[in-house]
Amino acid sequence: MPQSPHDRAAEYHNKAAHAHQAAATAHGKGDHLTAHELSKQAHEYSIKAFEHSKQVGAHFKDGKGS
């Protein structure tokens, strides 16, 4: 079953939060390279979440939301 833009946005927000947490853990352990890579991944997930959130907003702005 295909996910709605809202569900995809929520999923990417959760993935970004998890990657941020993992980056903080890696940084705390002194693994700065891994922390940097995880931070980049979190940023990419955040961008995807934002794009899907914009789709949700456009859907409601057009009067198609319930």
Structure commentary:
This protein has 66 residues and is an all-alpha fold. Helices cover 82% and strands 0% of the residues. It has helices at 5-28, 32-61. Helix 1 packs antiparallel against helix 2 (32-61). The two termini are 20 Å apart. 15% of the residues are buried.
Summarize the structure.
The chain has 66 residues and is an all-alpha fold. It contains two helices and no strands. Helix content is 82%, strand content 0%.
Average pLDDT: 90
Largest sheet: none
**What's the tally of helices?**
2
The helix/strand series, from N terminus to C terminus, equals HH
- Please tell me what the overall shape is: elongated
Structural features:
elongated; 66 residues; mainly alpha
Helix/strand layout:
Blueprint: H1 5-28, H2 32-61
Helix pairs in contact: 1-2
